[in-house]
From TrEMBL:
It comes from Sphingobium ummariense RL-3. Keywords: Glycosidase, Hydrolase, Signal. The active site is at E204. InterPro entries: GH (IPR017853), GH39_cat (IPR049166), Glyco_hydro_39 (IPR000514), Glycosyl_Hydrolase_39 (IPR051923). The keyword rRNA processing does not apply. Residues 30-521 form the Glycosyl hydrolases family 39 N-terminal catalytic domain. It holds the Pfam family Glyco_hydro_39. The lineage of its organism: Bacteria, Pseudomonadati, Pseudomonadota, Alphaproteobacteria, Sphingomonadales. It comes from the Bacteria. This is Glycosyl hydrolases family 39 N-terminal catalytic domain-containing protein.
Length: 562
């Protein structure tokens, strides 16, 4: 909803309210924003994504989803995928993919084939997405335990660790494969382009039951050889790791000590952090999802603390290589029922600023927070996987990243009297009072204010009656401004709610699909606009925000009148 010249003294109508929602109880929230008090440059940590299944990227809905991601911040968005070196014909399955990059002839001599992996990276770059290159997994011809090779995972069952997960029979061949691959990438995409990528080795090698069939020493040897191969091909390549699962262990410390002793170049550090949702039985055959934000934050802070203690790496860029509400995108079940709707979107809005706050408090350099969520090709609509789109239709969570992308420039001072303290959320989550928090930025004459209304329990609750008090506005805004109020909630930017409303069709008609695509867009609030009062260098904005809702208020100079 556009509201023009709001800061020139024009007051808008009453706060957002519609139907029965207008009669519901609410609680007051006071937010203060001082646009003149800057707190450092905006770090777009949100612009990293990934998935187990690399071949989905080249399929119809994968290409669409990548295009959406690339449009958020062209040539600054990164994508990480498993299985880029896995043997096979490129046919994807849940938690599986392949490129057949390496085979051997009858004499055991290497045969390199970059066709499939080139197609994957070409698809990224055509959509302004860059590779966050995961060097894995082990080609069948190189594995020390090649059979069985492809795992038999299905949601809820199946062994994961098969032939792809084991160390190489020949580390020299492994290093040469990486060298030949990176050299080929430089020839295909150019030195400057490949210098902008990230290169890391393997995935969660500390989970030896799942992703690694060797021990720690074997992984360190694998990593060192991979980095040598990358740097032989491109001495200026950005290399790092270890992209371990955050298990509250000391693996990251062991890794830092190892690369220092071995002299292995390390341009960034990476680890994973996940939450722990559960299903709460409410009795009478009913129940609800309870999110585990506290676990997510505790795991991240444990890893931050290890980096903080190491003087060599304290200022090294960190990428949380997978950062999610839980650990298995391809799994389904009651505890994962948060994914299609606004539980996932509000969790995302509430968690990213807190991960940044933890890094700031530890004095470490958080560069990226990678959402391990993409899409699952040719699955039923809203099938319950952890994804950004379903059948090519954006889910509410995707619209949070669209909001993040509109926030740039400098952070400014912003506080909410109903934002729960960081230590409280890290210790016990959001189990009592709701968390209504805020983040604000200024970019020249544009002010953007993010407000989330989050609770760990997926239960109904009262709206937040929000009042934003603005101070220190740029002079261009004081002369007259345009306000845009974006919203993700039960009624806005929500394809899943639209699908439920039309009766959850298994196969939506063309007309229904068009309706879903329209509902999936990031939209502005309808009906009465947030009330705005101006005065001097400041203003106040009033609106109601439902539980699990997220608002983004953007103020920009009004176009001059003739």
């Amino acid at each position: 909803m556009m509201l023009k010249s709001v800061l020139a003294g024009l007051a808008a109508a009453a706060s957002l309210a519609s139907g029965a929602a207008a009669q519901e109880a609410s609680f007051p929230v006071a937010i203060s924003v001082d646009a003149a008090k800057t707190e450092g440059p905006v770090k777009p940590v949100w612009r990293f994504f990934g998935a187990d299944e690399p071949n989905y990227a080249t399929m119809k809905d994968g290409r669409t989803t990548l295009a959406t991601l690339g449009s958020l911040s062209p040539d600054r968005v990164y994508f990480r995928a498993h299985n880029l070196l896995t043997s096979g014909d490129g046919t994807p399955a849940l938690k599986w993919g392949s490129t057949n990059i390496y085979t051997e002839d009858a004499q055991g001599r290497p045969v390199y084939n970059f066709t499939i992996v080139d197609h994957i990276f070409d698809t990224y770059r055509e959509r302004h997405v860059k590779p966050y290159v995961e060097i894995g997994f082990m080609p069948e011809a190189m594995s020390t335990r090649p059979q069985p090779y492809q795992h038999n995972f299905r949601p809820g069952s199946g062994d994961i660790r098969t032939g792809w997960a084991y160390p190489p029979k020949d580390y020299a061949k492994w290093e040469e494969l990486i060298y030949q691959w990176v050299r080929h990438c430089v020839e295909r995409y150019g030195k400057q382009e490949v210098e902008s990528w990230y290169f890391e080795t393997w995935n969660e090698a500390n989970l030896e039951k799942y992703y690694w069939g060797g021990n720690q020493a074997d992984f360190f040897r694998l990593h060192d050889a991979a980095v040598r191969g990358v740097r032989r091909a491109l001495p200026t390549a950005r290399v790092g790791g270890p992209d371990i699962a955050g298990m509250r262990d000391t693996y990251l410390t062991d890794f830092m000590n190892h690369v220092k002793q071995a002299g292995t170049p390390t341009d960034f550090l990476s680890f994973h952090a996940k939450g722990t949702p559960s299903f709460i039985d409410d009795g009478n055959g009913k129940g609800h999802v309870r999110m585990g934000l506290s676990t997510h934050l505790q795991v991240a802070d444990h890893e931050f603390a290890q980096v903080q203690k190491d003087a060599t790496f304290r200022n090294t860029p960190i990428v949380i290589g997978e950062s999610d509400p839980e650990g298995c995108a391809a799994c389904q079940g009651p505890a994962n029922a948060y994914r299609n709707g606004t539980m996932y979107s509000s969790y995302t809005a509430a968690s990213f600023p807190r991960l940044q706050a933890l890094a700031t408090r530890r004095g470490v350099n958080l560069e990226g927070v990678l959402s391990w969520a993409f899409e699952f090709e040719d699955q039923p609509y809203f099938a319950g996987f952890r994804q950004l789109t379903s059948a090519g239709i954006d889910l509410p969570v995707m619209n949070i990243f669209k909001m993040f992308a509109k926030m740039d420039g400098q952070y400014v001072a912003a506080t909410s009297d109903r934002q729960l303290p960081l230590d409280q959320v890290m210790a016990s989550g959001v189990r009592g009072d709701a968390d209504v928090g805020t983040l604000a930025t200024v970019d020249e004459n544009k002010v953007a204010i993010l407000v989330w209304h989050y609770h760990d329990d997926d239960l109904a609750g009262p709206d937040a009656a929000v009042r934003i008090s603005l101070a220190g506005l740029p002079a261009a805004l004081r002369k007259g401004a345009t306000m845009t109020h974006y919203r993700v909630d039960r009624d806005h930017s929500n394809s899943y709610a639209a699908w439920l409303k039309m009766g959850s069709p298994i196969a939506p008609s063309d007309a229904q699909r068009a309706t879903l695509l329209e509902a999936a867009k990031l939209t502005t609030v309808d009906g009465p606009a947030p009330a705005v009062q101006a005065g001097g260098r400041g203003a106040s904005i009033d609106f109601r925000l439902p539980r699990q809702g997220v608002s983004l208020i953007v103020l920009e100079p009004a176009a001059p009148t003739r």
